[in-house]
Amino acid sequence: MHRRTFLKGLALTGGCAACSSLARASGNIPWNYAGDRGPEKWGDLNSTFRTCSLGAQQSPINITGAIRAQIEPLKLDWKVTAAEIVNNGHTIQLDLPPASTLTHNGRDYSLVQFHFHAPSEHQIDGRAFPMEIHFVHKHAETGDLAVLGVLVSTEGGEPNIPLSQLSAIFPRKNGQKGKLEKADVSKLLPPSLEYYTYEGSLTTPPCSEIVTWFVLKTPLIADPRAVKRFTALYKGNARPVVPTNRRLILESS
Ligand SMILES: [Zn+2]
Description:
Layout: H1 3-6, E1 7-8, E2 11-14, H2 22-25, H3 42-45, H4 51-54, E3 62-63, E4 67-69, E5 75-77, E6 80-87, E7 92-95, E8 101-104, E9 107-117, E10 123-124, E11 131-138, E12 145-153, H5 161-167, E13 176-184, E14 195-200, E15 211-216, E16 220-221, H6 224-231, E17 250-252
Parallel strand pairs: 3-10, 4-17, 12-15, 12-16
Antiparallel strand pairs: 1-13, 2-13, 5-8, 6-7, 6-13, 7-9, 8-9, 9-11, 11-12, 14-15, 14-17
Helix pairs in contact: 5-6
This protein binds zinc ion.
The site of zinc ion (ZN) has 4 residues, from strand 9.
């Protein structure tokens, strides 16, 4: 596959040498993945973060004991669009204009951004993966989210070339941004869209319980060098799994 079939054009700008994170620059509460602002402390950092410690429907979880169910196939309509790539101090994120959708229970959610975690946040039967991609879809009226989680493995098949190409242009500096003329996000999906689904939360503060999660059963296969390009920037940007409590996990079949 030729580079231009996945992404086209890149101009990096910015860089935020003076600030430790964009979150701080924008006046939000600083948080982190370790130490006194790590996941166990998120709920205490600010009153708006309390759900992180008090919520009973938090994410991520260890996906186990899923119930096979006749649930609708995942309905994705993802277009080739422009994109903005940013190193935001917590991850590498691609912001997208509204064009692509996920449809669930007759409701359309618009793909607004996707970003990366290493290692994976979700586990399957206790197993974590080297990386996880979160494709965040938002319902225009309610603000509810439908997040598609794609686990990334470095074993078991041919590596995904678009992911390698994308990893080569990750902005290295905190706050650095780039504009892409075209990104074909659908090229970052594994061949099967069979999924697990459950009701959960954002995995970062404020941990709002507004997310219907769809985690694909089939991982995307990555070149280990693509994973290394991410972990060279962010290693350990994953919230530990939290109790499932009484939630049902359904599995497409
Ligand atoms: Zn995420």
